[in-house]
Every structure is written in C-alpha cells, then in structure tokens.
Amino acid sequence: MMRSITEIPVLHNIPVLVRAALNVPLEGGRVASEYRLRRALPTIVYLRERGARVVLASHIGDTSTATLRPVVEELEKLIGPVAFCEVPVGARAREAVRVLRPGEVLVLENLRRDPGEVAGSIEFARELAALADVFVQDSFDTCHRAHASIVRLPALLPAYAGFELLDEIRELSKALSPRHPSFAIIGGAKFSTKEAVLTRLLATYDHVFVGGALANDFLKAKGQEVGESLISDTSPDELQKVLAHPRLLLPIDSRIEDGRIEDHGPKTIELLVDLVNNARTILWNGPLGEYEKGFTAATDAVAEAIAGSGAYSVVGGGDTAVELERRGLLERYSFVSIGGGAMLEFLAKGTLPGLAALG
Questions:
Q1: Beta partners for residue 283, in sequence order
Q2: Cβ(314)–Cβ(162) under 8 Å?
Q3: CB 154 within 8 A of CB 358
Q4: Rounded distance between C-alpha atoms, residue 178 and residue 283, angstroms
Q5: Is 353 in contact with 347 (CB distance < 8 Å)?
Q6: Residue 249: other Cβ atoms inside 10 A
Q7: Can you say whether the dihedral through the CA atoms of 326, 21, 148, 194 is positive or negative?
Q8: Before 181, cis peptide (omega within 30)?
Q9: Residues with Cβ < 8 Å from 321, sequence gap 6 or more?
Q10: How far apart are CA 226 and CA 246, in angstroms?
Q11: In the predicted model, what is the mean pLDDT of residues 323-340?
Q12: Left (φ > 0), alpha (ψ -120 to 50) or beta: where does 41 sit?
C-alpha cells in the first residue's frame, strides 16, 4: 500500500531523495512560469522543517543537454539558498549530499543527462539510491514513464508519496466518479493516446466532446471534407466504436484558414459554453484548435466559461496551467493537474507504473 510522506518515521539529518516535478517551461534560459515549483513546495517545506537533508531530482526539457540551473535560481526566490550539483549521480553528487546540513536543499542536474534514466536502468537507479536513505515520489507528471527514477528507485529505498502526488491521485479519482450532469472535453491530437481515456469517459460522463486536431480524425471518418487539416494516420475503422457512442460530441462548425481547420466555429463554442454552464463536474484535457498558432477563440471561451461555472472542474494537459495562470484564471479551477499524458493514463486505468512501484 502506498505510504504518505507523513509516515516517514525519522527525518532529522536524514538524506531524502525527492523525485520532484521541476520540469518547468523555459524562455530565453529563464523560468517562464513558477507554477510547478509552487506545487512542489509543500513537500520540500515539510522535509526542511523536520531537518531532513533534501535532495531534489528531476528532468528538464526534452533533451539530455538541458540544465536545471535556471530552476535552482527561481527556487531560491521561493525558499532561499539552494545548492546545485552539476551531475545527477556519482562521486560529486554523493559529496554534495554529504556536506548538506539539516534543512538544506540540493538540486541534482537533469536526470536525463544519463541515458540510464530513460532506459529504466537498474544500475542508474542504484546510483541514485546511493545518495539517500529515503525516497519520496512527488512527480506525478512522469509517473506514466518506465524510467529509472520512477519504477526502479522505489524498490531500492523506503519509498513514500509526496503531497503533490497525493493531491493528484485524490482529485483525479474524484473526476472518475463525477457528479451529474458531467461534461468532459478532450482536445489535442493522436487518437492512439486518447482511445483508452475516451472509452472510460464515455462510460461515466454524460457528454464527452472531442476537439482540437483529434476531432479532425473523427470528422473525416464521418465523411466530412477536412482539406489540409492536421490528421493522424488512424484508420476510420479504429474510430468507429467511439464514433458511434451516443454520448460523443464533435464540432458542428469550424474556422478554416487556407484550407485547414484551425479552430472551432461560433456554433460549437456556443454549444460548449452551454454544456459547461449546465454541468456539475467538468474535466478538460488539451487545447481546442491550433492554439500555438494563435487560434485561441474556442480554448479561451471554454477556459473563461469553466472558471465562472461553479462546477467541480479538473483541467490538465501540456502547458494548460501556464496559460490559465497568464489569464488570471488558475485559482478559479477546482484542480489543475501538472500531468498531460500521466493524467490521461490515470483517468483511463486508475493507476500508473510509478504509483504501482510505490506499493
């Protein structure tokens, strides 16, 4: 059974390795949003206040060359001095942990600088385990990955769940048993990554809207002309089971630019807002339309409607939290998940490899 961080029996002067969610967006080498760092703070502060020697491990970006140094600089603004080790494991990392005093915090360099992290190497996990006496998993956003720090490390040290991870499990579990009327919105792309969650949601939610580029696949399968719009290589036959479900909703009009569907049209936006206003539970994952190209009408309208709905609202996926923060809407949602793929997989299966590894 998964144990909470509050169950760690002794913390004073104990080196505790925390797999933290420090994968924040960077712009020009600086942290663009500190939202994830703020979500990581309860676990860090809890350990510091009890005199633990806190060692934070994370990845950053999509490459093995990215560095966590900008994250350290931003974290220092929130909690004061933070040490930084330029390697994730090895003699230098062990020495950096050794000299920590009770209540001090150390950030290790990007775990993915070592290929053993993504490969799920037991050898790399053993090197991480050599840095501490206790392990705390607090990176929900990567718990769907079979990486060394996610699935290997918990078997090598006494392992516990941090506060951010526990929050995610609690709130997403609520979303799996929605109050009715309930409304789910799934955007983004790639039907192959959404099929399982769509099947689960169609069984539990009153209405499930498929939007964004993902909707193009469904519209094409229904025989609608989609021109040069972004579509996947999913065959129409693969879509039929979901497409035929009576609770499934698709866009009823579109904004088209240069022969491409770029966003949902005004009638679809009106439909979405009406459904939001009548729902008691709202689940939203992924943008609507090609948001990154400036086609934001549907996404913005839905974001505002959910924020003002009074419903229990759960949202996640990509940089959704960053955008809600920019628009000043973050605090008006019941829960904002830091997970994209992890959120979808948890909703589909009720667990994740990283959670199962905690016991």
A1: 184, 314
A2: no
A3: yes
A4: 9
A5: no
A6: 20
A7: negative
A8: yes
A9: 33, 35, 36, 315, 330, 336, 338
A10: 23
A11: 90
A12: alpha
E strand segments, the chain: 15-20, 26-27, 30-31, 53-57, 83-85, 105-108, 134-138, 159-161, 182-186, 207-210, 248-249, 254-257, 260-264, 281-285, 312-316, 335-336
Nearest Cα to 117, choosing from 85, 145, 147? Answer: 147
Q: Which domains does the chain have, with CATH numbers?
A: 5-166 (3.40.50.1260), 176-349 (3.40.50.1260)
Q: From the CB of residue 299, how many other CB atoms can be counted at a distance below 10 Å?
A: 25
Q: Measured between alpha carbons, how far is 38 from 40 in angstroms, rounded to an integer?
A: 5
Strands 30-31 and 26-27: antiparallel
3-state secondary structure of 315: strand
Confirm if 26 and 34 have CB atoms less than 8 A apart. Answer: no
Quickly count: other Cβ atoms within 10 Å of residue 259's Cβ.
Answer: 10
For tokens 């994952």, what's the residue?
285
Q: Which band of pLDDT confidence, cut at 50, 70 and 90, is reported for residue 47? A: very high
Per-residue model confidence as pLDDT tens digits over 78-96 = 999 999 999 999 999 999 9
Q: What is the end-to-end Cα distance of the chain in Å, rounded?
A: 5
Angle between helix axes 195-204 and 341-349 (nearest 10 degrees) is 50
Residue stretches of the annotated binding site for ATP? 194, 292, 317-320
CA 137 – CA 162 distance, rounded (Å):
6
Annotated binding residues, as ranges?
Answer: 194, 292, 317-320
Q: How is residue 299 written in tokens?
A: 């996404």
Predicted confidence (pLDDT) at residue 154 exceeds the cutoff of 90: yes
Contact of 161 with 3, CB cutoff 8 Å? yes
CA distance 87 to 109: 5
Residue 318: per-residue pLDDT:
65
d(CA 267, CA 298): 10
